[in-house]
Write a structure and sequence with these properties.
alpha+beta; flat; binds glutathione; four-stranded mixed sheet
């Protein structure tokens, strides 16, 4: 029990250090014309990222979102109703997880590398 609590604390602490490092080493944002950015902003409305603030895989994914300059909605999956939504609609509480709405259907994508690849394919110039 104590070991579990200590491990959780160490993980949280490490996560917060990673968040801090991310803040001071943010990648540069991609620049677009007003028209292009408006199109990208519109497309991004149909996406949302379920994530934890101090999860290193989420930090990595948020860095890509920052670099791609997309206004992606972040949902804190440590809080309700997002946690329950993730569990019941996507299948499990694992983050990051990207919710994608397309042609009236919703699909969920786990795995930070896969999410970053998807966002890069869609939004890199
Ligand atoms: N291979 C995954 C790892 C994701 C992962 O392990 N996420 C942890 C948080 S850092 C998680 O969701 N754990 C479930 C939980 O804490 O309930 C990725 O790259 O996205």
């Amino acid at each position: 029990m104590l070991k579990k609590i200590l491990l959780k604390g160490a993980r949280e602490g490490l996560g917060r250090i990673i968040v801090l490092l991310d803040l001071v080493t943010r990648p540069k944002k991609i620049q677009r014309s007003v028209e292009e950015q408006s199109k990208v902003d519109d497309e991004t409305q149909r996406l949302s990222l379920y994530q934890f603030y101090a999860c290193p895989f989420c930090v990595k994914t948020r860095r890509a979102v920052h670099r791609l300059n997309i206004p992606l909605a972040f949902r804190d999956a440590q809080k309700e109703p997002h946690r329950e939504q993730l569990k019941s609609e996507a299948g499990k509480v694992k983050v990051p997880c990207l919710r994608i709405e397309e042609e009236g259907a919703v699909r969920w994508m786990y795995e930070s590398n896969e999410i970053i690849r998807y966002l890069d394919q869609r939004f890199s110039p």
